[in-house]
Amino acid sequence: MTTTKTGIDLLHDPALNKSTAYTEAERAALGLIGLVPDTTESEDLQLKRVMLQLSHKSTDLERYIYLVNLLDHDETLFYRTLMSDPARFLPIVYDPTIGDACLKFGHIFRGPRGMYLSIKRRGHVKEVLRNWPVKDVRFICVTNGGRILGLGDLGANGMGIPIGKLQLYTAAAAVPPQVLMPMYLDAGTNNEQLLADPLYLGLRERRPSTEDLYSFVDEFVDAVQEVFPGCCIHFEDWTGADAVHLLERYRDRACVYNDDIQGTAGITLAGMINAVKVKGTKLKDERYLFLGAGSAGIGLANLLCSALVQEGMTLEDARSRVHMFDVNGLLEPSRTDLFDFQRVYAHPHAPTRDFVAAIESIKPTTIIGVSTVGGAFNQKVVEAMSRINDRPVILALSNPTSCAECTSEQAYTWSKGKALYAAGVPMAPAQYGGKTFVPGQANNFYIFPAVGLAVYATKARRVPDAMFIEAAKGVADQVTPEMMAQGMLYPPQSNILEAEIITAARVAKLVFDLGLAGVERPQDMEAFIRSKLYTPSYAKLA
């Protein structure tokens, strides 16, 4: 690789900067003599220094800030750090630390990263997009900050999410970072505390009407097709109704997906697949009750029903297996407050606002928490599930950690060791009855980076639900019987890249089978995927 940049300009480019790793020949050729210490360090030595500096930080938020600063100066070393120990670093650059980072985003801001597309630029979106220095953008992760994790409307503070999500594309699945663009679509915020904060970085106005917002998103999606024709749009952390409606609006005419809907559904489906393996049943034998009926819950229910249809059920029968409960109680036909996408899960039942009563009546084998209500799966809930099931499946998926419906210790203790449990955030192993249970983390980063890698490699034109079902199966099949005996429903995070490659190869095969690929089909799918991987090593510049 050669570069036209020299001297200070080269040192200020994080994609090219090698810090102390320039060779003597590079220093002489690129005008760097005297601008960097007069020594050439190996990448391993640089990584050792990073680890030393991180060890002096007392909180994960401080480590997050340090790593973001590293990324701003030396992209290669940043990704080398993350990929050296993903189980350690992914929770720092993303969930759960990212929740704290977003709450403080305007206060810990060091410099811009990604694009900030304001609704004030309506009519000029294409011109704004052309300001991005990379012309072959393959993924844009875009949020309007409307529903960040379980924290609600964070407006511009939500920009931490698309930044972090795209870092996981690279750190977990080795998608090249130069093809990724994080974006905040700024249409205001209804968060009064942020509007009054002098350090808030977004528009100081309230959110527009749905019609006005969707009109602006239409312009954005159309502009992306023209400016970046090979780009896939990843919608992230929009409000529930907007998330569902925007996905339906574009999914059949552009390469788009919504990770909160499809990615969350995929990783949860993977856990369900392994739970029924442990129980010796099939997905179609189970009965499901959701706590939470927003975009994540609905998306999960829809993907689950698609998987049940693959097992031979009719869509009507599949939906009959799925029940939902939200802040106003059980979804049933007398409810007048339901969105169109919720009504298909409003089955005949007496109205109730008592979740335990709903469990006793419906007799679910699995409860799925996507409520963002910490502690909602209390002792009465877990005990009720344990009374009616030999192996109750309890998935407490809300994040950050404070929003988890129950902890691993609570699930195993209250169920007397019977529960098959996973959370949406990291949970510590738990002891019960002399046995150690290792809870799984139903984290989307097992799914969306693998799907992203498959889309990147195949140049897929669309991202249908079938790709997420295949990804779920790919993840589930990597959990051994020995792992499941310990309570694990997901592969270990320590070898996440290999897990993503295997899953991506399966998804890529489906892309070709569906006729959605933009490249010729290879003979060896896994070798094809591996040929596309980013490696965090410095390029020779001179």
Task: Provide the fold topology.
Elements: H1 7-11, H2 24-29, H3 43-55, H4 60-73, H5 75-84, H6 86-93, H7 97-103, H8 105-108, E1 115-118, H9 125-129, E2 139-143, H10 160-173, E3 180-186, H11 192-195, H12 210-227, E4 232-235, H13 240-250, E5 256-258, H14 259-279, E6 288-291, H15 295-310, H16 315-320, E7 322-326, E8 329-330, H17 355-362, E9 366-369, H18 379-388, E10 393-396, H19 408-414, E11 420-423, E12 430-432, E13 435-437, E14 440-441, H20 448-458, H21 465-476, H22 481-485, H23 496-513, H24 525-530
Parallel strand pairs: 1-3, 2-3, 2-4, 4-5, 6-7, 6-9, 9-10, 10-11, 11-14
Antiparallel strand pairs: 7-8, 12-13
What does this entry show, briefly?
This protein is α/β, with parallel strands linked by helices and 542 residues long.
Structure description:
With 542 residues, the chain is α/β, with parallel strands linked by helices. Among the domains are: 7-93, Up-down Bundle (Hemocyanin, N-terminal domain); 262-445, NAD(P)-binding Rossmann-like Domain (Rossmann fold). The protein has 24 helices and 14 strands.
User: What's the total count of β strands?
Assistant: 14
Estimate percent helicity.
40-55%
Highest CATH level, the class of the domain at 262-445: Alpha Beta
CATH architecture of the domain at 262-445: 3-Layer(aba) Sandwich
CATH fold label of the domain at 262-445: Rossmann fold
- Quaternary class: single chain
Strand order of the largest sheet: 8-7-6-9-10-11-14
Structural class: alpha/beta
Main β-sheet description: 7 strands, mixed
- Mean pLDDT across every amino acid position: 95
Number of helices: 24
Distance between the termini: 8 Å
Q: CATH superfamily membership of the domain at 262-445, which one?
A: NAD(P)-binding Rossmann-like Domain
Strand content: 5-15%
Computed Rg: 24 Å
Q: Which runs of at least 5 residues are low in confidence (pLDDT < 50)?
A: none
Shape category: globular
